[in-house]
């Protein structure tokens, strides 16, 4: 949620990368990575007591396990588990880039505590084996995903240990159960960083495709703003709000918004309040301070507001929704949000000589306590009205949540119409 900060520490190792593939060299590398990750936690984690966890003792245990590990994959998992000890949504090991990328061909979403397929590529093996939109993924590789462990499982299979194939148990909308295996699409990749220019081009393309807000204003008096991220500058937040300022009613869609910059969150909140708002407290290692939203916008948005959230609305998105609730400024509808609300930074290290392989850690530097004295971490935002899409809604591309929001504001927008508003293939 905090604006990303990169701190670079170079570890120069007199070995070429090919030679580092043998087990002994991997052990040396991973022991060094573990030590730096441990130091990052001890020096930066917001709670100097580490929730009562003995970091040094667990570091020694993890060192011994790495020395006995039989593969680099196992070592990566051990370092990740060391970070998991803090049970913190914003703390996680970022391992070196793999020499391949894995695409399972699907997109999943936790809906009312169950995992469903929301997108599937027609050319994927998963599709060929019979997986379709609307299927419930009841089990993955022997694990039954639930609300608490879903994000950990996804991080395991997508980041820490991508798999060439998966064994899943699916439940079809008619209740039939099937157990099947499918293979992932594997693409070779380099573990080394792109050049600065190539990386900038790649980042710009990604941001354009994934971070650009979408607007819908074809219904007189109603604006729908889909905001996929808070990774926006203050200028971009202001420009975004300029487009909806004159609408009498606004639906702000934060579904799928994983958070972003704290400054963007604060700036967006300023657009909805003419008065100072005490939003809660930010607790850092050096003490707590009030999170105050001070009125600095000359022309705030005064219309009715409905905020949409789902299980993947996280961090800054959750804070925005909850502040709107607590201040009675609008209505929140949808599914229970992620419950991942902390402030964090990225600390980055590298090893290599002329070309560097990067790794690092996402680490929490502040906890958030809301105005009512409650934390959103591990609980999330409970919507004022819970609206859950069914498997049939997913299959037929219907959006009952957006439809209901429009209805609350006095507009008629069917779930079928709502489902294609931001569907570029349908417009």
Report on this model:
The protein folds into two domains: 1-97 and 193-386, 2-enoyl-CoA Hydratase, Chain A, domain 1 (Alpha-Beta Complex), CATH 3.90.226; 100-188, Pdz3 Domain (Roll), CATH 2.30.42.10. Residues 1-20 have low confidence and may be disordered. The chain has 427 residues and is of the alpha/beta class. Strand 7 and strand 8 (177-183) form a beta hairpin. The protein is built from twelve helices and 19 strands. Helix 7 packs parallel to helix 8. The strands form five sheets. Strands 1, 2, 13, 14, 17 and 18 form a six-stranded mixed beta sheet that branches. Strands 10-11-12-15-16-19 form a six-stranded mixed beta sheet, with helices on both faces. It has a three-stranded antiparallel beta sheet with strand order 6-7-8, with no helix packed on it.
Main beta sheet strand tally, sense and closure: 6 strands, mixed
Q: Tell me the count of domains.
A: 2
What is the gyration radius calculated from CA atoms?
A: 23 Å
Kindly report the CATH topology of the largest domain. 2-enoyl-CoA Hydratase, Chain A, domain 1
CATH 2nd-level architecture of the largest domain: Alpha-Beta Complex
Number of strands: 19
Quote the average pLDDT.
90
The termini sit apart by 33 Å
What is the percent of helical residues?
25-40%
CATH class of the largest domain: Alpha Beta
Structural class: alpha/beta
Low-confidence stretches: 1-20
